[in-house]
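pls ignore typos typing on phone
adenosine monophosphate + seq
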Amino acid sequence: MDCIFCKIAKGQIPSKKVYEDDLIYAFHDIAPQAPVHILIIPKKHYSTILEIENDDKELIGHIFFIANKIAKDMGFNEKGFRIVVNCNRDGGQTVFHLHFHLLAGRMMHWPPG
Ligand code: AMP
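k done
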């Protein structure tokens, strides 16, 4: 499949890795929108979050658990951070492999643009 994030997870396209295990891969965003901007992706291909099914609940919980671990390890847990999933056109999704943005290192605004 011609998916850029599948290739990143397989090491076929270079990335700045933050974390990896059997299920997920995390790396720095190429165009950071905050001082810390990490993408956490499942290794299995899902085009959007709409493809998540009942059997995937453990995977999604694992992604949030690892997001917390990364936040704590990098020391921005106390000040705070934001986790974002964009879905389809109106959600601002541009890469169609499910990914969770982990943003930190500056004050976030609400509502987001
Ligand atoms: P989204 O708009 O939610 O689909 O987010 C896609 C994100 O992927 C954007 O923040 C891009 O900057 C990021 N991105 C695209 N290509 C790469 C790449 N090769 N390495 C790291 N991040 C990327």
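Residues 4-79+99-104 form a domain with the HIT family, subunit A fold (CATH 3.30.428.10). The beta strands are 17-20, 24-28, 36-42, 81-84, 100-104. more later
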